Every structure is written in C-alpha cells, then in structure tokens.
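Chain A, query sequence.
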Amino acid sequence: MKTRARSALVMAPLLIIVFLGDYFLMAGVFLLSLYALREYSAAFGEKKPTSWALWASLGLLYAGFVVVQPSGSVPAGPGGLFMGSYLWVLCWVFISLVLCFVSTLSMGKKDILQGMATIVGVLYINFLAFHIVLVDASFTQPIYVSGAAGSWLALRISGLRSYVWIVMLSAFGTDIFAYLTGKLFGRHKLIPSVSPNKTVEGSIGGVIGSVALCGLFARFFLPQGLAICIVIGILGGVVSQLGDLSASAMKRRLGIKDWGTLIPGHGGVLDRIDSLLFTAPLVFYTLLLNVFMTGAGI
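Chain A, predicted structure.
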C-alpha cells in the first residue's frame, strides 16, 4: 500500500498539466501517448507492431490539430471546432488506417497479426487518448493571462473550470474507490478469469466513488454542469472499469502482468491510463451530445 501511495505521487505532475491545459495539456498527452506506444510495442516481443506507422500517426494527429484549430491558442468551443479540428480527426483516422495497411506490405512472411496490432495501437492509444485534448479544447471556461481573449499574446489556462477534471476524477476515482471497497468488503469475484483481484463489491464502490467525486467537483467548480457530471460519474464509473478489464484481458493474452515498470506498484504508463482511454471519449461524446440535444452551454 505504501509503495502504491508513493508511486501515485509520480502522477502528481498530471494535475499541474491539467490545470494549465491548452498546449501544456496537449504536450503532456502527446508524451504520455508516445511512452504508452513504446510499452505497447514492447509487450509483443518479436512480433511487434510496425513502429514507424504508430509514431507517424501520432505526430500527424497533433501537428494537424495545431494547424487547423481556430487561430491563436483559444479553441472556440464545440461549435467553433467542429468544421476544422473535428474534420481533421476524421481525416486522420483515414490516413492512419492507410499507413497501417501500407505497413503490412513490408512484412513479408511475418504474422499478419502484427498488422492488426498496429491498427489497434493507433486507435487504442493515439485516438482514444486524444479525446482528453478534445475535452479541454471544447469544454473549458479558460482563464486568460497577459492579454485579451483571442489575442496571440494571451496565455490560456484551463484552471479548474475544465471538464478534463471530470475525466480524471471519474477514471482515477473509480480505480481508488474500487480498490479500497474491494479490500474492505470484497467477497464476490467480478471476472476472475480476466482479473482475479477485482470484486463485485469493489466495482459498485468504484461507481459510487466516481459519482461522488464528479458531483462534488461540479458543485463547486462547474455548477452549470452538475446534472451532466453526475450522469458522467455513473457512466464513467462503469466505462473506466471496462477499460481496465479490457487492458487486463489483452495483457493476459500477451502473457504479461504489466505493460511496463516505470511506476513501482503501478506498472507502466499504459497501466495507469488504461481507464482514461475509455473515460475521455465517454466524457467528450456525452458533453457533445448534451450540447447538440439541449443547446446548453458549457
């Protein structure tokens, strides 16, 4: 437990990055994705996915987003981003899939599953993690420092009025509360063939923890989004656990315990963000759907 607590401090810089938001967050997510791709590739041993396709896809995604988003460092909310940045993401999916299929041309007699692993890596890590950036760009009420809003001189800081915090609270809150509840009250195994330590009681406790943390945060910092944050807390508590279980299933098939060893007691970067990879898209599409259905602001 002490090892896990000390190791959790390694993730503390994430809080600073989320608070700063904008290009700081984009750079942080890019670096996390880069390292996660490294761990993902190493897990396959000799049958690694095609590295150049993974790196090229990641670089294109972020470079293209910087170029096509609204001028300056001030994304213009879901409406302002849709025709530019969102369209670029759709184009990027097509380009990335083409790169993945082209990479199979040089495989020769290698296992075709390597090509499939490349596609999974692009979508699982690059695409899903990028939704953290989209949440910040679309659903943040930023603080501007040293300049007027929209000016290239203005520093855009996300502060605490960003729904990226809801992504983090739902994913990590579920993980923490599921762990503690499982330790205290866990009796019935959830899916022992995939993750023998997870329990039904822990799973329920994780959802309750997610709802509580998201609701409390919204009450003080995002009061206009309290209702949708509670909904996200419920859905996120379930989806984040699906992300964790899906990663566990992949690791079992690959015959490994953790994706990496960077963080003692926690495994690698990918072990820490596997629940985020499912939660970030959930938050983004739930908020986007809420805007288009109700016309509600952020």
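Residues 2-294 form one domain. The longest helix spans residues 226-254.
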